[in-house]
Design goal:
GO terms for molecular function: glycosyltransferase activity. By secondary structure, the protein is an alpha/beta fold. The protein has eight helices and seven strands.
């Protein structure tokens, strides 16, 4: 009598330690909303994600999160120069997590003087990727005058360079940003570009036109900027587009 073999579906279980010390949860800042969306999106796809951040478990409603998403909390000093404190604590926590459990990837959300995730992963032989959401140096120069001073500026650039060097790979949110950070370390030229902040269903040749030009009474060519504008975020990119496309 013949044996009937049923197909066996095997699922590869992936564990990701997502290191984001600069992120507070809960919070209304864009970085928090974006990081939670990314972490929960991966978790909903079946990836086991542990998000290391400044997490307040007493103020979070976890009912909207995937069961595959868990949190590890670090200190949230709430004082000047807190970045030094929570970055150091994050490094200690990452070491603890990597020694206590087998993670496949360390995903590090970078910033100036950061690198807790990629540093610990490099020391313990775990693969890592670096997330770059903005031009860290440009943001730093806009946030503090001290960043223009030589010792501070030199150490900041070194921090950017080292984080890229330690990571096994990485991604940015635009090709322009990738070009910019490649000036810190040419290794970044191999980083992937994952566009952030737009609806793919609207930005393709088959999408129904929204009639924006007609509503605004515009004619001719038009450039559409998708993203957030702020003192240092987006405005320079708009200026660059205008220079390259003087007829728009």
């Amino acid at each position: 009598m013949a044996t009937v073999l049923k197909p066996v579906h095997s699922y590869i279980s992936v564990k990701v330690l997502m290191v984001a010390p600069s992120v507070r949860v809960p919070d209304t800042l864009g970085q928090t909303l974006h990081q939670l969306a990314l972490a929960n999106g991966l978790a909903e796809k079946g990836i086991e994600v542990t998000l290391l951040c400044r997490y307040n478990k007493n103020s979070v409603d976890k009912s909207n999160f995937s069961s595959n998403l868990s949190f590890v909390s670090i200190v949230n000093p709430g004082i000047p120069f807190e970045r030094i404190i929570f970055t150091k604590h994050a490094y200690q926590k990452v070491i603890e997590q990597l020694k206590a459990s087998e993670f496949d990837i360390v995903h590090d959300r970078g910033y100036i003087f950061a690198g807790s995730g990629v540093q610990a992963a490099s020391e313990l032989g775990v693969k890592s990727i670096l997330q770059v959401d903005d031009n860290w140096m440009r943001s730093e120069l806009s946030a503090t005058r001290a960043a223009r001073l030589w010792p501070y500026h030199e150490r900041a650039i070194r921090s950017c360079r080292n984080q890229i060097e330690l990571a096994d790979g990485g991604f940015t949110v635009s090709s322009i940003l990738r070009d910019q950070i490649s000036e810190w370390n040419p290794k970044a030229r191999k980083f992937s570009v994952i566009q952030n902040g737009y609806d793919e269903d609207l930005f393709n040749s088959k999408a129904e036109p929204l009639g924006i030009k007609e509503k605004l009474g515009l004619s001719g060519k038009m450039a559409v900027f998708v993203g957030a504008l702020g003192p240092w975020h987006g405005t320079d990119e708009l200026a660059e587009i205008a220079k390259v496309n003087p007829n728009i």
